[in-house]
Amino acid sequence: MKNYKQTAAFDRLQSLWEQSPDLLMLNRDAARNQQLTLETSNFLLDLTKTHLTPAFLDAYEQMLRELDLEAQIEDLFSGRKVNNTERRPALHTALRSDDDIFVDGQNIRPQIRETFERIRTLAGRLYQGRLTGITGKPLRYVVNIGIGGSYLGPLTVTAALKEQARIPVAFLSNVDDEHLQDVFRRFPPEETLYAVVSKSFTTPETLMNARHVQNHFKRQYGTEAIAKHFVAVTAHPGKAEAFGIAHANIFPMWDFVGGRYSLWSAAGISIALSLGYDVFARLLAGARLADADFRRLPLTQNPARLLAAVTFLYNNLAGYGIETYIPYRQRLQYLPLYLQQLIMESNGKSVQRDGRPSAGPTSPVVFGDTGTNAQHSFFQQLHQGTQEVPVFFLGYVRSATGALENRRFLLANLLAQAESLAFGRRHDEPHKHFPGNRPSVTWLWDALTPENLGYMLAVFEHKTFVESVLWNINAFDQFGVELGKINARKFDEHLKNRSGDTEIERFITRKMEE
Ligand code: F6P
């Protein structure tokens, strides 16, 4: 398969970028601005403060055609083994679809439906107070024990939609013992349901944390407490059972769903348990709509494809290699963390699907924080630093509290930042000069509903996929995390046996023993 540099459209795109007027000039063209503003019934996507133009989008569309994007999308949705290195499909879209989909000749729809039904039943029993712990008290809290994709999606969603929360939820991810202590202190274990979420059920952080919690129950109440307080979500139910989780409490996820794409599966159990199954279903419905739009809408109305054009422009033509995501919504504080994993773990690779070196830059470095907080920390660099950083702003017109004055000021800040970055300000004193011509996208929504959130997250998944097509990357493996895992085991042995022969290991051993 080709990469972007092997297309005929690439030269044209490059020369369009090289000859591009600055943002001030571009924004004088009302017809262009109109074409670069996409409005639907619940959002407005403003691309006017980027260097995109209708001519650029024409050439970009030509490039996507040359790369056979449509065929690659159909391969993704229909369950072809797009994860070529692990010979697996990547069927996160199947989780939110109603269609029959076959993997190795087997229709996977019934197992998905059955799993969701079980989650719905569990959530119902929890709300009715019919789930009781070992002391007979009803379970009133949920703790998700998992890391990476078994944590960041549910964390982001439950925080974003906390208005809907029926059951408080906490997340235990880090193997740091203080994290464990903090979560333990927050919710009384006797009234808590623990969901151990691990696709592989081998992740040491997750197993270590789960083991600590299990030991607490075993010490206090004996092993029969485990069945009352633990459920597991995994693609390896045998391992969960061997770990002591009751067979009836194990929910499947599947190898055809990647970890960072798994919040839509049983790995999103904490969403369904905390916010309600109906909210989980609404999230999925939003994502389903994004899936349909991604497949059918023309480029100029297709958010995922347009947003990928922005990343391509600044990452591959301008060579910035970085981008930032700034939600003007405190409840979306975890979105940048979620996007970091989605984008960087998917596309942070240096080889193409067939193992050849990549043709150019792949995943940008991704970071972010909420506005206005970020304005008071790193925005200095965005406005006047030497490294250009494209910004993806996210805003919401309506809030859950209806405090209009705050909301207005929050949005005024978002608009002000986009304008200041794009158009700058001339000043004779160099320190007070703002160069402008710094790109940003503003994606403004009416409200942060489950449907809108599901739609947005799915669009970011598809944006990431389009980029992987441009770069000819397998977005669904993550071999880059393996070496560190192996070395962690080695160093753990050294530290345990005091056999490390470096200064730094000796320092740790000494301090641990003091
Ligand atoms: O270390 C990376 C990773 O493999 C992620 O891809 C994954 O989301 C995370 O670890 C957790 O994996 P698991 O769900 O198997 O515990």
Topology record:
Blueprint: H1 9-18, H2 23-26, H3 30-35, E1 37-39, E2 43-46, H4 54-66, H5 69-78, H6 92-95, E3 102-103, E4 106-107, H7 109-127, E5 141-145, H8 152-160, E6 169-172, H9 177-186, E7 192-197, H10 204-221, H11 224-229, E8 230-234, H12 237-242, E9 250-252, H13 269-275, H14 277-296, H15 303-317, E10 322-327, H16 335-347, E11 365-368, H17 379-384, E12 391-396, H18 404-423, E13 440-445, H19 450-471, H20 482-497, H21 503-513
Parallel strand pairs: 5-6, 5-7, 7-8, 8-9, 10-11, 10-12, 12-13
Antiparallel strand pairs: 1-2, 2-13, 3-4
Helix pairs in contact: 1-4, 7-13, 8-13, 8-16, 13-14, 14-19, 15-19, 16-19
The protein binds 6-O-phosphono-beta-D-fructofuranose.
Short description:
The protein is α/β, with parallel strands linked by helices and 514 residues long. The chain has helices spanning 9-18, 23-26, 30-35, 54-66, 69-78, 92-95, 109-127, 152-160, 177-186, 204-221, 224-229, 237-242, 269-275, 277-296, 303-317, 335-347, 379-384, 404-423, 450-471, 482-497, 503-513, and strands at residues 37-39, 43-46, 102-103, 106-107, 141-145, 169-172, 192-197, 230-234, 250-252, 322-327, 365-368, 391-396, 440-445. The chain has three domains: 4-66 and 297-477, Glucose-6-phosphate isomerase like protein, domain 1 (Rossmann fold, 3-Layer(aba) Sandwich), CATH 3.40.50.10490; 92-279, Glucose-6-phosphate isomerase like protein, domain 1 (Rossmann fold), CATH 3.40.50.10490; 480-513, no CATH class.
List keywords for this structure.
21 helices, Rossmann fold, alpha/beta
